[in-house]
């Protein structure tokens, strides 16, 4: 009999077999995950698609309304004509695969349990409390400005720093343009969110193909929201992303030459819960590996994160009190929660 995915994990990473060595960054209480039916595959065309070129023309206000509607009703949207050259996208995805195809000892040089590391590798792990294996492997690193951080990145494969740096610089421009449009969609100054920004954090995600016999107990990534303002996701051509829409799980299949943008916890707070952080997860398959590139937009540590004053009135009282991103970030690792419920610590006191 072939070893189970749990036995394989223990063999590859002995620390996983010793509970004293397992360093969980969070748990996922079953009560946090909505009790939803299976994936609804009938939602053809369910992903809102925004043509970013529209933001540059005379119909900008129309496209801003489309973005606002997508944020409010769906929590995510796809962006076409985003301006990231196709070659840079291809190079980034190829480089990601090359890194995760390196010998394990080469990749594990970047493994760290410190969430504040400039760069760290996160490997798949066994969640014994829920009897599942989370298979995603991720290389997470800071990347803005690129020149300040690239010396910390892998030098193998040889093209890593050049190709990744080119992609990160391009996606940063997209990030700023989208955040300006989101600010305007809320009726705020165009640079309202931009003034809160600190840096740019990227996660290169690798999902190995899974044995068919292990599919029922293997997750790519468990249900969660992102502690970001927005996340910009570039997927390869292998499906895997699932989101909650109208109280149903739906597949968000890759759209050629498009990136997916979704709402994070910080935008939920800034918008006074008008735009809600997107619950999502990733699944695996037993035929093909999958690669995605997540670009995280987050505020500076001292940025005041609370409902924009312009969004508060007698009919729309503040749902959250003011807090700093540093306060949120520090609490996030204490409350052991992987969804936007971690914002509950910052709820405004009712009169």
From TrEMBL:
Q: Note whether rRNA-binding occurs among the keywords.
A: no
Entries under Pfam families matching the protein: 2OG-FeII_Oxy (PF03171), DIOX_N (PF14226)
Which terms are listed as keywords in the entry?
A: Iron, Metal-binding, Oxidoreductase, Vitamin C
For this protein, the record's InterPro entries field holds:
DIOX_N, IPNS-like_FE2OG_OXY, IPNS-like_sf, Oxoglu/Fe-dep_dioxygenase_dom, Plant_2OG-oxidoreductases
| Residue intervals of the Fe2OG dioxygenase domain | 198-299
GO terms of molecular function: L-ascorbic acid binding; metal ion binding; oxidoreductase activity
Q: Does the keyword Heme apply?
A: no
* Superkingdom classification of source: Eukaryota
Q: Which PANTHER family match?
A: OXOGLUTARATE/IRON-DEPENDENT DIOXYGENASE
Q: What does the similarity note say?
A: Belongs to the iron/ascorbate-dependent oxidoreductase family.
Stated name of the protein: PROTEIN DMR6-LIKE OXYGENASE 2-LIKE
């Amino acid at each position: 009999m072939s070893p189970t995915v749990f036995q394989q994990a223990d063999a590859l990473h002995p620390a996983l077999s010793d509970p004293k060595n397992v360093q969980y960054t969070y748990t996922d209480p079953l009560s946090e995950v909505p009790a939803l039916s299976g994936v609804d595959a009938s939602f053809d065309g369910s992903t809102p698609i925004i043509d970013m070129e529209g933001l540059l023309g005379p119909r900008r206000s129309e496209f801003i309304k489309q973005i606002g509607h997508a944020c409010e009703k769906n929590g995510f949207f796809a962006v076409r004509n985003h301006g990231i050259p196709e070659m840079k996208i291809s190079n980034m995805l190829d480089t990601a695969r090359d890194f995760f195809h390196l010998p394990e000892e080469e990749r594990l040089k970047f493994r760290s349990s410190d969430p504040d590391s400039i760069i760290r590798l996160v490997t798949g792990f066994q969640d014994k409390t829920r009897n599942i294996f989370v298979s995603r492997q991720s290389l997470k690193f800071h990347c803005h400005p690129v020149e300040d951080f690239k010396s910390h990145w892998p030098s193998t494969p040889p093209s890593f720093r050049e190709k990744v740096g080119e992609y990160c610089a391009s996606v940063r421009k997209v990030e700023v343009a989208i955040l300006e449009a989101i600010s305007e969609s809320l009726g705020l100054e165009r640079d309202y969110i931009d003034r809160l920004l600190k840096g740019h954090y990227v996660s290169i995600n690798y999902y190995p193909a899974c044995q068919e016999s292990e599919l029922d107990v293997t997750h790519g990534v468990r249900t969660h929201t992102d502690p970001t303002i927005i996340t910009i996701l570039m997927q390869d051509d292998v499906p895997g992303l699932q989101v909650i829409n109208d109280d149903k799980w739906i597949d968000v299949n890759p759209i050629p030459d498009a990136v997916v943008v979704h709402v994070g916890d910080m935008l939920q707070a800034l918008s006074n819960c008008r735009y809600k952080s997107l619950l999502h997860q990733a699944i695996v398959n037993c035929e093909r590996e999958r690669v995605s590139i997540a670009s995280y937009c987050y505020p500076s540590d001292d940025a005041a994160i609370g409902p924009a004053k312009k969004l508060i009135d007698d009919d729309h009282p503040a749902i959250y009190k003011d807090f700093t991103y540093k306060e949120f970030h520090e609490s996030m690792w204490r409350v052991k929660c992987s969804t936007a419920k971690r914002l509950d610590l910052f709820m405004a006191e009712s009169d």
